Amino acid sequence: DQQVKQNSPSLSVQEGRISILNCDYTNSMFDYFLWYKKYPAEGPTFLISISSIKDKNEDGRFTVFLNKSAKHLSLHIVPSQPGDSAVYFCAASDRGRDDKIIFGKGTRLHILP
Amino acid sequence: NAGVMQNPRHLVRRRGQEARLRCSPMKGHSHVYWYRQLPEEGLKFMVYLQKENIIDESGMPKERFSAEFPKEGPSILRIQQVVRGDSAAYFCASSQGGGSNTEAFFGQGTRLTVV
After folding, report:
1. Local structure of B84: helix, strand or coil
2. Do A107 and A86 meet the contact criterion of CB atoms below 8 Å apart?
């Protein structure tokens, strides 16, 4: 049973435009959400997170939006740059239960020149 | 402040041998997670440990796999009698835990190849 779902395996976006990566979750107890970026042959690196008490968190070019009623979050990257080409993982945690972090399957983002 | 250190980076084992993967968490982190990534797949949760305790091992295969995080020293993921299907990248992450807002930091991974 996949609790964190990233339904788009890949996404291509023109350089300079906005990249929007989507994520859905099923467990209503999740209260902390994270996005990680991964290059080939490297470990994932943390990008940005959001607590369930917020609906938006911004850090430079990266903004995460959380819609609790829809159990949906999205990562916006604007403007997109060539170095943003990577696999992006959405993750979630139920901190009231434990700190286990559950990951989605990832979305491969290609930034086109 | 060193990050999460995993070794070895690459490990080759013959079928039936044992594989031992090591993970040293970031300084001050008492929570360790192990994930497996198969080719073309995402990060699959295996086990979550705190010092000397296994908190959640629901993602670990019931046989041949074990993990520990002793009071002193690194966390160890041990795979006995490896089979070809164990070939994957194994990632360790650490966090402060305790319900804080800190994220988990990942190591570079160990790529296990079973021949």
Report:
1. helix
2. no
pLDDT tier for residue B102 given thresholds of 50, 70 and 90:
low
d(CA A110, CA B111): 25
pLDDT in tens, A25-52: 999 999 999 999 999 889 999 999 999 9
- Mark yes or no for CB contact A103/B31 under 8 Å: no
Give the nearest partner residue to B108 out of A36, A42, A89, using CB atoms: A42
Could you give the CA distance from residue A77 to residue A88 in angstroms, rounded to a whole number? 11
Question: How far is the C-alpha of B59 from the C-alpha of A103, rounded, in Å?
Answer: 12
Q: What is the C-alpha to C-alpha distance for residues A65 and A83, in angstroms, rounded to an integer?
A: 22
Task: Measure the CA–CA gap between A62 and A76, rounded to whole angstroms.
Answer: 6
CA gap A31, A48 in Å, rounded: 15
Cross-chain CB nearest to A99 (options B41, B97, B105)? B97
Distance in angstroms (rounded) separating the CA atoms of residues A92 and A113 = 32
Taking chain B, what is the end-to-end CA distance rounded to the nearest angstrom?
Answer: 36
